[in-house]
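User: Continuing from earlier, I have the next pair ready.

Assistant: Great, send them over.

User: Here they are, in order.

Assistant: Folding the first of the pair now:
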Amino acid sequence: MVRSFTALQAARPGFEADQLVTFQLALPGVRYPNPPDHARFWTNEYAYDPRTEENWGTVESDNHVVLPGYLRALGARLLKGRELTWEDVKEGRRVVVIDDLLATKAFPGQDPIGRHLKVRRAGQGDDRESVEIVGVVEHVRQDHPGRDGREQTYVSTALWPFNALYFAVRSPLPASRVVEIAREELRKLDPELALYDVRTLRGYLAQVTAGQRFAMQLLGIFAALGAGPRELVGLVVRQGLSLAALGIGVGIAAALALRRVLSSLLYGVSPADPATYAAIVLGVAILALLASYVPALRVARVHPARVLRSE
């Protein structure tokens, strides 16, 4: 479990979570209507060869309608080609960015740039259209940092217009300040609109890995409950000596920093006298050992059943 949790913490989720704030904005359909016969889908069927086109609906992607700059703000690593551009939006280009999972599945050992996918048209029916692949990005583990999800496609609003917006803002400012600035700018555009579902990506990762952290804490509790007298004494003494070592380090650093001040108060002894420092370190260590060992012995003599009853 320890190795698994360590590996999970080191796993790259496909985006850079630090300094990233997300929030949502809903545009009322009355004042911000979608074009006629357009709908929003979270997934999208696609086809990459005659077999998948004939068996339409057997493969599908997590479909993301994004504006230029989104992938860069997210910190998604571009592996091949390019991201979507404002020219793609303005000119209504039928282009798509895919993730490496889809690239490996549809075009193993080949360069997918310039190839085409058939995707569902953004309407109410089952119409399809051909889109050109212009870029490949690293797969974003949006559900859990330790698990791959469905393959992903990224298209622009030129292909799939809709009236619900999700923002990702990367900034060194605190999240509260980022949201405050966003609300100020939003009021200038339309004072009746409001932001909601504000979160940091670091907080999101902590939320989705809460189960693993709880399991680690539970294992630690059971390990302590199962410890014998010797293990308990060792645990308490190690903690006491660790704190003492930290205090010794801070004290030595402070003493060395104040050598000039001390030198004016000393006679016949250097402010960095090795014997003095050695005596202090040894004395503090002995005191810390005694201060930890005595209560550790008391803990070791307490019967576990009595502790559980008192809890």
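And the other member of the pair:
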Amino acid sequence: MDAPIPDPQFQARLLVKEIGALTGEPKNIVILRALEERLPQAHSPVTATERAQRILNVLETSLWQNTSPSKLGGSIPREREDEILGYGPEGV
């Protein structure tokens, strides 16, 4: 699907139809499988602390290991910060 559809019920019907066409399953099975896949997540919601820890783990194990120590933890000049954020003499 290319553009978002404003009506969630219509969008859900399109998704069910598309998945059914791809898998060859009837619509009720498509919906049942989706609910079954979602159920474990509903039983064990992730807290904000757990989510933050997961993000930190990803950063520590992938991104930070591939970044030079000289680039980590340092500050950047205000002018560079403004440039990154898109601020200029006229504002944003």
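Worth noting for the second one:
The radius of gyration is 22 Å. The mean pLDDT is 83.
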